[in-house]
Write a structure and sequence with these properties.
With 298 residues, the protein is α+β, with helices and mostly antiparallel strands. The chain is 41% helix and 9% strand. The protein has nine helices and four strands. It has helices at residues 10-14, 42-71, 78-85, 88-104, 112-125, 132-147, 154-161, 192-205, 268-276, and strands spanning 213-220, 244-250, 255-261, 290-293. The chain has a four-stranded mixed beta sheet.
Length: 298
């Protein structure tokens, strides 16, 4: 049965797909004729509730990043900014842990430079919905020739891909990078060191503590692996099951400032409490940052 759109003729209403029409069931109408509203112009609303904080956040970043780069003796450029925010500490740790697996597999260890190349290749490879071998032969090799960059051998890419770790492998028995049994009871919490290192500089230098808005919400990390700890199912996100992380972000400029994976035996409240210990610090008594959470957080 076609849904009739109020205000349109039956003929015009039939031209609009039902999926684009407003819901006609499940709503309870409420008489608002006697309800008083305080109507203000749109520009006044923007100035009063959003503009000041938004402009202040962008001004803060435009001053903070160049200052930090100059303090380290670096030119203000896009590449130096990315290198500064994605701390070398992160790549050093991941390269060290990944090399532990590679060596156990009698393969060459990976250094920070090659690891950066690997992640760049992984981002490029994600653009092609085909097998890795086909992505290399049909797309990435021609792109390498056209743009003049050196393509990592596909065998090396796959070896690093199956060996990447975010925790000290030598302290865990059974993790040799192959299909052998791994004790996975607390592997997610082993990633906490990397989680903190990844967002340390973003949280320290990018958030506007004067009047920014920090928001906390949970996020489902999709994974196809069958042996991931604390794998949750979401009815809202069909086919995207995986562990859950609690994350905090700058609501003004939509910038992720931290995350912490939730593990078995730890409540959401305890996990958020630990996450907030890494939140941006304010040392000025005149600062008035705002804080909000998703309605599902209590």
């Amino acid at each position: 049965k076609d849904i009739k759109v109020p205000g349109l003729s039956v003929k015009l209403s039939k031209l609009i797909p039902d999926s684009m029409k407003a819901c006609s069931t499940g709503w309870v109408e409420k008489d608002l004729s006697k309800t008083r509203f305080n109507i203000i112009p749109s520009h006044e609303y923007t100035n009063k509730y959003h503009r000041d904080g938004l402009e202040e956040s962008y001004r803060h970043i435009s001053k903070s990043l160049p200052r930090q780069l100059r303090n380290e003796g670096k030119d203000v450029s896009m590449s130096n900014t990315i290198e500064f925010l994605v701390s070398e500490e992160v790549f050093v740790k991941i390269a060290r842990y990944t090399s532990q697996v590679l060596v156990k597999r009698r393969l060459e260890p990976v250094n920070c430079y090659e690891l950066r190349q690997f992640f760049a290749h992984k981002l490029l490879r994600s653009r092609f919905d085909v097998s890795t071998e086909k992505a290399w032969s049909d797309f990435m090799e021609p792109l390498a020739v056209k743009h003049g960059f050196t393509l990592m051998p596909v065998a090396r890419f796959n070896n690093i891909l199956t060996s990447v770790r975010g925790y000290d492998v030598n302290s865990r028995a059974g993790d040799s990078g192959d299909s052998s049994w791994k004790q996975r009871k607390n592997l997610l919490r082993s990633l906490e060191e990397i989680e903190k290192a990844m967002f340390n500089r973003s949280a320290s230098f990018l958030f506007n503590t004067k009047n920014g808005v920090l928001v906390v919400d949970d996020e489902l990390v999709g994974s196809r692996a069958s042996d991931v700890e604390s794998k949750a199912h979401s009815q809202r996100k069909t086919g995207v099951d995986g562990p859950v992380s609690d994350a905090m972000a700058d609501s003004m400029i939509c910038l992720l400032l931290g995350m912490r994976l939730r593990v078995t035996g730890e409540s959401q409240r305890d996990n958020v409490r630990e996450l907030l210990k890494t939140a941006p610090k304010s040392t000025d008594s005149t600062d008035r940052p705002k804080f909000s959470t998703d309605r599902g957080l209590s």
